[in-house]
Amino acid sequence: MDIEIKSDARVIRTALGFMIGASAFLAGTSIIAKALGIDWENTEGLHALQVSAGRFVFACSALWLFVAIQPQRRPSFQNIHWRWHLCRSLFGWIGVSAMFAAVAHMPVAEATTISFLSPVVTMGLAVLMLGEMLTLRKIVAAMMALLGAVLILRPGTDAFQMVGLFAVASAVFLGIEAIFIKRLSDREPALQILLINNSIGASVAGSIALFVWQWPSGGQWGLLVLLGLVMACAQAMFIQSMKRAEASLVIPAMYSILVFAAFYDFVLYEVVPDAIAALGALLVVSGAIVLARQAR
Questions:
Q1: Torsion sign over Cα 229, 230, 232, 237
Q2: CA nearest 49: which of 39, 41, 57?
Q3: Which of the ends of the chain has fewer CB neighbours closer than 10 A, N or C?
Q4: Which neighbouring-strand residues pair with 40?
Q5: In the chain, which residue ranges form alpha helices assigned H by DSSP?
Q6: Residue 254 has what pLDDT?
Q7: What's the rounded Cα separation, in Å, for the pair 130 and 260?
């Protein structure tokens, strides 16, 4: 019995380690996107839609390269729910593009915190679309998260940032995407979902990016490739975490992304959040964690 308990504890620690690693990589994608969207000397920053295209194209390339190297892991591609895949990819692309637009013009930690409103959106849609129950705990958690977002955005004051609305839009669209991920994950293998999603995303994002295309510099090409690779690593570590433990145990560890985002912001851009923004972040994360515990 003791051996089984120790074994289970080791598996859970490994799962949590993978989730924290995924969070570090996800925060890294926002920092890379911020670097791509900033004007560097005589080189203009890239449009958020072009950055989003790079994320999907190079992540897609990395995933298919992985399958080519390990063909035994190639999914069978049977029973594909194309309508859900298309909806998931479309909302995910809009959400990612909005987030990249936000981080290019505001602190990454604040944009990341606002994106944590997505569980609130998912909760509301789950009640309407999936028939889940709306409990008092869910309502309180949603109110905490929304109040935290208001403290970060501070509408009606000089501190209000219009670009913060892009982060809000990102939370909404990523919350909708989560509904389709939930439906797909019950019916298709994870790698199959990733391959199809990134392939559709690369096609859609790449096509739209042509309208705002500007030729990247050598350094920007390198950052675009790095963005795709980092996102692919984040997705792979997320899957490994979810395979090893229940979602209710490991998902709260994903909120460590805020710690990594704040750390990267401080090291690279010397950004220090003020007390009000910190309080808002605490409320948003607390509300999201309450929702995650409710999901158990």
A1: positive
A2: 57
A3: N
A4: 43
A5: 2-37, 48-69, 82-103, 108-115, 118-129, 136-153, 164-185, 190-209, 218-244, 247-250, 257-269, 275-295
A6: 73
A7: 33
